[in-house]
Every structure is written in C-alpha cells, then in structure tokens.
Write a structure and sequence with these properties.
Length: 334
C-alpha cells in the first residue's frame, strides 16, 4: 500500500502554485507519462513480444533503426497528438517535424523527443530511456514549421526523461528543481521517490567513450590524461570511469552520485560537431542538470544558449558536477 505522491498529484499541485494555469500543461504531461508507461512495458517484455532486433531501416542521421525505435516513436506520437495540447512534435526518428493531424485540435506547445535513447543497448538488455523537451509554440503560430522549433534551450518550460532500468523512473523539471518518480507496476503509477535531486559539485568519476580518444581536442585530452594519472598526477587523486552508452543512464547516475559525462567535439567527422543532438538530447538533459545544480556546456558555450539551426543538429556535450565541468571549461579557455 502506497501513501506516496503520484506524479499526477505532484503535477497538479505544481500547477496550483502558478496563477492563471489552465491545466493544459498538466494534461500534456499526463499524456507523456502514459506514453512512458507503455514504452516501459514494451521494453520490459522484450523478446517475449518480438520487439527486439533491427528494423533494417535508417533514420535521418543515417543510423540503423531498431524495431523498438520505430514502435516507441509511434507510441509517443499516438499518446500525444490527440488531446489538443501540442502544435507539432519533432522526434529523433522523424526526418521532418510531425504536424498534429487535421482531425485533432492544435495546442500551444511544441515537444521534441527521443523515444528510445541508447537503443544500441536494447538487444543486450541494458538500460535505455526516453527524453523529452517542451517549449511554447511561438506566439500567433498555428501551423508551425521546422524553423519554429529552433528555440534555444533556455526557453524550455519542461524537460524530462524516463529511464527503463532495473526500475522504471521518470525524472522531471519544470524549472523549479528536479524530482524523480519510480514506477510501481502493481498500481501502474509513478510515485515520488527522489524529491529535489541535486548533483554533488565534486566528483572523481568520469564518462567518455575512449575509443574516440585520437579524435579529441587538446583540452579533453589534457583533462582525461590528468584523471588517468590518478594519485601520481597533477590531480593527486584516483578517478573511476563508467560508460554505459546510454545517455539517460549516465545522466541518472550523475544526478544520483555525481560525475562528469562527455561526448565532446572531435575531429572524427568535421561535418558533425559531436554525436548527441541538441533539441531532444542535449537541451533537455542540460535543463535537468542545471536545475539540479550541475553545469552543461559544449566547452565553448552553455548548451542551453546555443541558437539551434536545425531540429537534428548535433552539439558537443560536457555535463555534470559543477567543479569538474568548470575545470574542463577552463582548459578550453587556455
Ligand atoms: P542514439 O540516440 O542513437 O541512441 O544515440 C545516443 C547515444 C547516447 O545515449 C549515448 O551517450 C551515446 O549515443 C553512445 O554513443 P557511442 O555508441 O558512440 O558510445
Ligand atoms: Mg538518442
């Protein structure tokens, strides 16, 4: 028996604190929550329902799609298109924006999402997640275009992720701190279990894919080299390393015990500024990290201040514990 606060109750109570709130946004978040529960169930059933494996198709980024990339994209769209809260959506798995079909009313919000981030992990039964970002649709626009989505991360009104791990969790911010909810499968509700999540300012744990080391820029080379030298090096302390290849899992670990996560700028492919996508990966995670007291940066600028030029644009990402991220930013200035 739970006496805990459900995510629905939590969102409604947040809404009551905002004078003039209509309930529109609360209702949108409820649809997002429902989508995440359906995805949690699909991910959890896995092979039992034949959803693992590749779909033999490619997305706009040239990446082979998994069956679950396509199915979860469909789930997220279907859950969120009908209620009249959104004007359009943008997804990692859709080449162009997704306009709300004519038979449904249009709303005042835009949502960008990655329905199944880290999906290379799905077939090996390692944690994956859903990431989403909500902004207001520009004033007076009822038929948004791709350009209308190009709003900097500082304008996000909500960001969140669902982590499908040993437990399914939902982590949310509406600009008033970060709260984590755990899915109780017996009652089908997300219950507030991690109120007011904060990232410790210091850490001795870093995350980076070192197979890209030869392509990194000098500041990242220096930072990692100093960490690896441990007690005998200039940092005078031993560091630990983790790489899940699932950004949601890495960010969740950092929110729980601190750390620094990097998918930095490299010269592997000069046409790409990094691997991760600004609109539906880096921006929402940056809002969450900053709201939890961390820092999120490209090394050269605050991620949320980057002016987007495309819905699928890539951006270098360095985020996590304040003092370590700031150290690496200072190496970029030298
Ligand atoms: P995806 O959106 O195609 O799943 O890619 C994003 C993922 C992140 O979750 C993770 O941090 C990164 O890609 C891992 O990349 P790599 O396979 O290069 O280690
Ligand atoms: Mg992704």
């Amino acid at each position: 028996m739970h006496n805990g606060v459900s995510v629905t109750q939590f969102i409604i109570e947040e809404q009551r604190r905002l004078p003039g709130a209509t309930g529109d946004f609360t209702s949108l978040l409820n649809d997002v929550v429902s989508a995440c529960k359906v995805i949690a169930n699909l991910v959890n059933k896995g092979s039992l329902i034949g959803v693992l494996g590749t779909a033999e198709t490619e997305n706009i980024q040239g990446e082979t799609q998994k069956k679950l990339d396509i199915i979860t994209n469909e789930v997220f769209i279907k859950s969120n298109e009908w209620a009249g809260h959104l004007a359009a959506m943008a997804s990692e798995e859709e080449d162009d924006i997704y306009p709300i079909p004519a038979q449904y009313p249009k709303g005042k919000y835009l949502m960008s999402f990655d329905p199944l981030d880290g999906s290379s992990n799905i077939d090996v039964n390692i944690s994956v997640g859903t990431i989403f970002s909500i902004t207001k649709c520009p004033e007076g626009i009822t038929e948004p275009t791709r350009e209308d989505f190009l709003i900097p991360g500082t304008e996000q009104i909500c960001a969140g992720y669902a982590l499908y791990g040993p437990s399914t969790m939902l982590v949310l911010t509406t600009g008033n701190g970060v709260n984590g909810f755990t899915l109780d499968r017996d009652i089908g509700e997300f219950i507030l279990t991690h109120p007011n999540m904060t990232i410790p300012a210091d850490t001795r744990e870093f995350s980076i894919n070192t197979s890209n080391q030869r392509f990194w820029e000098a500041p990242v080379q220096r930072y990692i080299d100093e960490c690896l030298q441990g007690k005998e090096g200039p940092r005078g302390e031993d560091f630990n390393m983790r790489w899940v290849a699932s950004m949601v899992a890495e960010v969740h670990r950092i929110l729980t015990r601190g750390g620094i996560f990097m998918y930095p700028k490299d010269n592997k492919d000069p046409s790409k500024a990094g691997k991760l996508r600004l609109m539906y990966e880096a921006n929402p995670m940056s809002m969450i990290v900053e709201q939890a007291g961390g820092v999120s940066h490209t090394g050269y600028e605050r991620i949320m201040e980057v002016q987007p030029n495309d819905i699928h644009q890539r951006v270098p990402v360095i985020l996590g514990s304040k003092n370590e991220v700031e150290r690496l930013i200072s190496y970029h200035k030298n």
